[in-house]
């Protein structure tokens, strides 16, 4: 499916299902967000490959060049300040591939092709193993930190779970972009490998010690 989308190049990766909060102060993006709110349409978030997030006309600013794969963002909350700035919250929806730019002023607009999510029939066991590994890692973190909190329930849908963990893990934007572009099997495999490597860094007695609670991956470095 091909559609026209307003683009917002950022120094962040938005994954499907992940939250995004933005302070919109540049005039071009105020206009863009205003139109999205008026028309109830999403905008596209793309990670900047090189260049700057600020206006190209500013002294020293370099034109932003983005990755081709991005994510639609649905605005689910907004507040416009007296001076015209916006504070918005949004959530990631479908992935897309940038086809070509339609216009560059007053803000980027492009033709994009929405990307389908593949079947998960071949990764059911892989997903089960990741859930078990995630719980083991959570128990080890609680044992190491002594902080008691409930272990979060991962989304039952495999694709949703893979994006959820990709968002939660404290990795570079480049890795998050790789996971955004990857198929579900690759995401599951690489997230599992990362958790195993982190577990291997913990003392042996902490890897197997059982606990009742955990607060997710917020402390993972």
Topology diagram in text:
Layout lengths: L1 E9 L8 E6 L2 H13 L3 E8 L14 E2 L2 E12 L5 E18 L5 E6 L9 H22 L12 H11 L4 H9 L2 H18 L2 H5 L13
Parallel strand pairs: 1-3
Antiparallel strand pairs: 1-7, 2-6, 3-4, 3-5, 5-6, 6-7
Helix pairs in contact: 2-5, 3-5
Features:
Archaeosine Trna-guanine Transglycosylase, Chain: A, domain 4; five-stranded mixed barrel; 7 strands; 6 helices; 2 domains
Task: Report on the architecture of this protein.
The chain is globular. It folds into two domains: 113 residues, Archaeosine Trna-guanine Transglycosylase, Chain: A, domain 4 (Roll); 88 residues, Up-down Bundle (Methane Monooxygenase Hydroxylase, Chain G, domain 1), CATH 1.20.58. The two termini are 38 Å apart. It is built from six helices and seven strands; from the N terminus they run ββαβββββααααα. It has 221 residues and is an alpha+beta fold.
Q: Count the strands? A: 7
CATH class of the largest domain: Mainly Beta
By DSSP (H or I, 4+ residues per run), the number of helices equals 6
Strand content: 25-35%
CATH names the topology of the largest domain as Archaeosine Trna-guanine Transglycosylase, Chain: A, domain 4
Poorly predicted ranges: 206-216
- Identify the CATH architecture of the largest domain: Roll
* H/E element sequence: EEHEEEEEHHHHH
Measured as a percent range, the helix fraction is 25-40%
Supply the CATH superfamily name of the largest domain.
LON domain-like
The class by helix and strand makeup works out as alpha+beta
Overall average residue pLDDT: 87
Distance between the termini: 38 Å
Cα-atom radius of gyration: 20 Å
Shape: globular
| Biggest beta-sheet profile | 5 strands, mixed, barrel
- Order the strands across the largest sheet as they lie in space: 1-3-5-6-7
Structurally, how many domains make up the residues? 2
């Amino acid at each position: 499916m091909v559609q026209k989308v307003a683009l917002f190049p950022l120094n962040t990766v938005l994954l499907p299902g992940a939250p995004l909060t933005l302070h919109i102060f540049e005039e071009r993006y105020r206009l863009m967000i205003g139109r999205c709110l008026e028309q109830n349409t999403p905008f596209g978030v793309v990670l900047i490959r090189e260049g700057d997030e600020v206006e190209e006309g500013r002294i020293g600013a370099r034109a932003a060049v983005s990755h081709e794969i991005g994510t639609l963002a649905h605005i689910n909350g907004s507040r416009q300040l007296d001076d015209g700035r916006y504070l918005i919250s949004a959530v990631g929806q479908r992935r897309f591939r940038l086809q070509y730019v339609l216009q560059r002023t007053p803000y980027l607009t492009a033709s994009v092709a929405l990307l389908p999510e593949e079947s998960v029939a071949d990764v059911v066991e892989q997903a089960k193993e990741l859930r078990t590994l995630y719980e083991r890692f959570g128990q080890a973190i609680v044992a190491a930190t002594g902080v008691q909190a409930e272990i979060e329930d991962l989304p039952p849908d495999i694709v949703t779970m893979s994006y959820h963990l990709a968002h939660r893990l404290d990795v570079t934007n480049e890795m998050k972009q790789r996971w955004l572009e990857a198929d579900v099997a690759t995401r599951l495999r690489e997230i599992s490998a990362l958790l195993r490597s982190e577990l291997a860094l913990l003392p042996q007695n902490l890897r197997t010690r059982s606990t009742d609670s955990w607060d997710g991956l917020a402390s993972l470095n």
